[in-house]
Structures are given as structure tokens and as C-alpha cells.
Design goal:
By secondary structure, this protein is α+β, with helices and mostly antiparallel strands. It has a single domain, classed as Oxidoreductase, molybdopterin-binding domain (Sulfite Oxidase, Chain A, domain 2, Alpha-Beta Complex). Helices cover 18% and strands 21% of the residues. Strands 3, 4, 7, 8, 9, 11 and 12 form a seven-stranded mixed beta sheet that branches. A five-stranded mixed beta sheet has the order 2-1-10-5-6. The N and C termini lie far apart (41 Å).
Length: 315
């Protein structure tokens, strides 16, 4: 998708534009200090919630060594948190971080419902406090053949599902992302997309200990561009399976229709396990580009988690 820019008479010449790096660094500083953009020294409601969570001692969380291999070196924080696939804001990965300011992430009720005995609704921060959070270092592999190593903070989705007590007929878990056109400028530009963003897992996948409900990253509450305030992380699948900014987690009997599978089932099938032997219709999946260094490395079956989850796919 291309953008046609018509420059008005009053626009300043390029020579007077603040360098991009300086602009981004200033905005990042303001966000980390908990201030709203534009020079206002007043924290937004969303940022106050994040700071309050940190004050409660949720972040930084203790690292779980059992889920954080010593040979994994985490990617640089700035590289991962400013390079985002989040089409609700922009299709430009490097622009998302600068288009999330109006996105309000507190309060944030999450509905856990469907085919279960004890459905309930709770705020994302309440869930983090109730189930307790820990840090885990996971490989992250995008379907576009770039990757990162990320220190997520969160709790196992299994704990949440056990609380609501799935009924025997519940075979899948459906995830729904927030849909707020007034706060998400990318939505109106992609009117043909089947919003809201929906994803899903088989219940066995959702119940696996590796499947994480993430509320933080790099020792802090999740930034908006990375799916604040709560998202799912499924490290052995391509990244688009890990839905961001979740408002609904529903237990269902039938395989849910997901956004990318609806748009292009040949390119983005429901299972979407990382598999270097199966190319995407438009590119190879045999290797991946590391997001912070640009180095290319060999892609591992199931993104390196074959020992842990391989049994889920044995026929």
C-alpha cells in the first residue's frame, strides 16, 4: 500500500525537520518517564496504570531459568519494541510506536467465557497480580522471516483456563483483540480486513506450559505497540498467532475463523507452526534475519521447541 503525500504551502523544508533519531529518543524518554507526548508533564491514565503495576512489584519479575536457556542472548530492547507488526495502527513496522499515543489501555477488562463452568471478567492488571508473573526468555519468529529473542513477563495461560474450568466440548480457544477505530488509525485504512483481529489455538496448545499470557517485556509493563496491556505468546508458532491487546478469551467447540487465515488460507493456515522445511508461498522459511543485528541464522523446527511441544503433533 503506497501513500501519496501532497505538501501544503506552509510545510517546513526538510532541512528544518528534527532528525528522526532525536525525535524518537525524546518520545521514548517521555514514555519511559510516564508522561504523555507533546511536552505535557501529566501521565495518561494508561501510563499511570503501568507505573502503578511496577510500584506493586510486578516488574521486573524473577526469571524462570527452566524456561530461559542460558545460551539465548536477548535482542536489544529498542530494536524489538520499535519494530512492530500491528496493522491496527500502521502497516509500517517502524511507525507503529509513534501512532499508539491515543490508545487507552486502562482500565482493561478481559472477558474469559464460552464453554466453561466459571466464566468471569477481570482487569488485565488484576489477572497479572492474581496469577503472579515471572520472566521467561523465548525465541520469537515472525512469518516474514525475521526473529528476536525476547524476555517476556507473564503467567501461563493454562492457569487462567483451569480457573474457568473448560467443559468437555471445548476444543479450541479463541482470542479477540481490541477494535477501536477512533484510537487505532490503521483500521480505517484497511477496511477490507475482517476486524477485529482474531486468533485461536487448539485447547491442548493453549494448555501447554510454554503458552504465556504476557503483561510485560524487558522487565517493564508491555508497551502499547507490543500488545499492552495483555497478549498471548506462543513461541513455537509464527508471531501472528500471538494475539495482542486481548479483550476476549473464549472457549469454543469449533475451530475459530482467524483474520489472516480468512484473508489468505494458503499463506497463513490455522496451525502455523514454525517449519523451516515448508516455505511460505512467497519466500523461504529456512532461515531468519535477527531484528537487532541483521544477521541471518538457520530456522529451527518448531522454533527450537520441538522437544517440548513435538508430541502435540504426532499422528
Amino acid at each position: 500500500m503506497s501513500n501519496v503525500i501532497i505538501r501544503p504551502d506552509w510545510q517546513l523544508p526538510d532541512s528544518r525537520i528534527t532528525p528522526e533519531r532525536a525525535y524518537r529518543d525524546r518520545r521514548r524518554f517521555l514514555r519511559e518517564m510516564g508522561f504523555a507526548g507533546g511536552g505535557l508533564l501529566t501521565a495518561t491514565l494508561a501510563e499511570r496504570a503501568a507505573l502503578a503495576a511496577e510500584a506493586k512489584g510486578l516488574y521486573p519479575a524473577k526469571r524462570n531459568i527452566a524456561y530461559s536457556p542460558a545460551d539465548l542472548q536477548t535482542s536489544k530492547e529498542r530494536a524489538f519494541t520499535t519494530y512492530n507488526n500491528y496493522y491496527e495502527f500502521s502497516t509500517d513496522k517502524e511507525a507503529v510506536v509513534d501512532r499508539v499515543d491515543k490508545f487507552v489501555i486502562a482500565p482493561w477488562p478481559v472477558k474469559i467465557h464460552g464453554l466453561c463452568e466459571k466464566p468471569f471478567t477481570a482487569d488485565a492488571q488484576e489477572l497479572a497480580a492474581e496469577f503472579g508473573v515471572e520472566e521467561r526468555v523465548y525465541r520469537f519468529r515472525c512469518v516474514e522471516a525475521w526473529s528476536a529473542v525476547v524476555p517476556w513477563t507473564g503467567f501461563e495461560l493454562r492457569k487462567l483456563l483451569e480457573k474457568v474450568q473448560p467443559k468437555p466440548e471445548a476444543k479450541f480457544v479463541k482470542f479477540v483483540t481490541a477494535f477501536r477505530p477512533e484510537q487505532m488509525p490503521g483500521v480505517t485504512r484497511l477496511r477490507g480486513y475482517p476486524w477485529p483481529y482474531t486468533e485461536g489455538l487448539r485447547i491442548e496448545e493453549a494448555m501447554h506450559p510454554l503458552t504465556l499470557m504476557a503483561t510485560g517485556v524487558y522487565g517493564k509493563a508491555l508497551p502499547k505497540q507490543n500488545g499492552a496491556p495483555i497478549r498471548v505468546v506462543v513461541p513455537w508458532k509464527y508471531g501472528y498467532k500471538s494475539g495482542k491487546s486481548l479483550v476476549s478469551i473464549e472457549l469454543v467447540a469449533e475451530q475459530p475463523k482467524t483474520l489472516w487465515e480468512t484473508l489468505s488460507p494458503e499463506e497463513y493456515p490455522f496451525e502455523s507452526n514454525v517449519n523451516p522445511a515448508v516455505p511460505h508461498p512467497r519466500w523461504s522459511q529456512a532461515s531468519e534475519r535477527q531484528v537487532d543485528t541483521g544477521d541471518r541464522i538457520r530456522t529451527l523446527p518448531l522454533n527450537g521447541y520441538a522437544v517440548q511441544v513435538g508430541s502435540l503433533y504426532k499422528k
